[in-house]
Amino acid sequence: MNNNKKVNSEKYVIHEDFIIARTARKTLRYIEKNTENFPNKYIVLKNRIIDSCYRILEGIYRANIFQDKEDKKEIVVHIQMLNFYLEDALRKDILTYKKFLKYSYHILEIDKMIKSWFKYEEAK
């Protein structure tokens, strides 16, 4: 039975060619997995963290398709909000400093990629 589950999950593997989206997807999965153990007391904060990740990914796809400057600005806003939520989780001792640094590294990587993408698009 385990083999069937593995085969079925491999059937749905997404091969993302857009590197920014692929990185955002990995970060989303990483953060989502690691926030599962947030105390119920902080469920709203957990949901906002995960929602921000999804909004970042959605914004990346939207900006890539429509090439709208406003969509690109929204991505940056969602990244800043995600940073705020993670800082709040650190301040409330929900996240360890080590976890916070790991999340921050991944988010910074996405932020740099997005800003480079914007500069490239503006230079065209």
Q: Name the average pLDDT.
A: 86
Largest sheet: none
Overall body shape: elongated
The CATH architecture name reads Up-down Bundle
CATH topology: de novo design (two linked rop proteins)
Provide the gyration radius in Å.
Answer: 16 Å
Structural class by SSE content: mainly alpha
Features:
124 residues; mainly alpha; de novo design (two linked rop proteins); 5 helices
3D architecture notes:
Helix content is 81%, strand content 0%. The chain is mainly alpha-helical. The chain is elongated. It has helices spanning 2-11, 19-34, 43-66, 69-91, 97-123. The model is unreliable at 4-9 (pLDDT under 50). Helix 2 packs antiparallel against helix 3, helix 2 packs antiparallel against helix 5 (97-123) and helix 4 (69-91) runs antiparallel to helix 5. The protein has a single domain, classed as de novo design (two linked rop proteins) (Up-down Bundle). It starts with a helix and ends with a helix. The chain is built from 5 helices and no strands.
Task: Describe this structure in a few short sentences.
By secondary structure, the chain is mostly helical.
Topology:
Elements: H1 2-11, H2 19-34, H3 43-66, H4 69-91, H5 97-123
